[in-house]
Amino acid sequence: SGRYFGTAVAASKLGDSTYVGILNREFDMVTAENEMKMDATEPNQNQFSYGNADRIVNQARGQGKRIRGHALAWHSQQPGWMQNMSGTALRNAMLNHVTQVATYYRGKIYAWDVVNEAYADGSGGGRRDSNLQRTGNDWIEAAFRAARTADPGAKLCYNDYNTDNWSHAKTQGVYRMVQDFKARGVPIDCVGFQAHFNSGNPVPSNYHTTLQNFANLGVDVQITELDIEGSGSSQAQQYQGVVQACLAVTRCTGITVWGIRDTDSWRASGTPLLFDG
Ligand code: 9MR
Question: In this structure, are strands 29-32 and 66-74 parallel, antiparallel, or unpaired?
């Protein structure tokens, strides 16, 4: 169908037969929940570490599943050596990281979150302040160009949260960036919508509009980290709404939930996932 159903996976749980049983049965795509992040893959500058990421990649590929790579460049979960860098040194270190990791996994990744969470929350609609942003506004397109060169076969995605509601300034800011990238030939193939929902941040009624408007720019859209805190029919109806919004958009190519069982979730107390403990 060209649409895939994924989950975040933790390498530490691959010895849990209940977990692996559900993983193998229910999903055809996986994302490493933490193991491909910058702090995990480059703990010391220019010393790369792929052991835990490879455990996930090998398990998934052994089962014929696709892999979403998460994430090449992000203001958060940077290794200690990177956190205090700035200017040209940081820009070059970031580009080297993108190149090295995307090259190592070349040919094995269906889609990369090249840049994660670069827009600010609130009413401004602009970029988030970060050490990466302070290297210059072109850091995002530079990361995408480096990723394209390193792995021309991977779909390259921009991924963020609170971009689900079409009327929010952050959504509009990301939309304008993608529109600009497409107009100038910056290589971008997809936009990831994390989709972390709860009672204070419910699934918006205009979700389909958001997904369709981005798709109309000529990119795939993917729901990349779905979880919905709650229970019972209210929670189930919100899951249904997200799935229907995606299915109504031809270029909505995937839904990934952010873990398998409630007990696996980063928000376990909100019982936000599809399986109980
Ligand atoms: O689920 C991840 C959790 O185990 C980590 O402690 C956390 C650290 O930042 O990151 C969580 O995953 C995040 C994802 O990488 C990006 N979007 C938000 C997710 C939830 O915080």
Answer: parallel
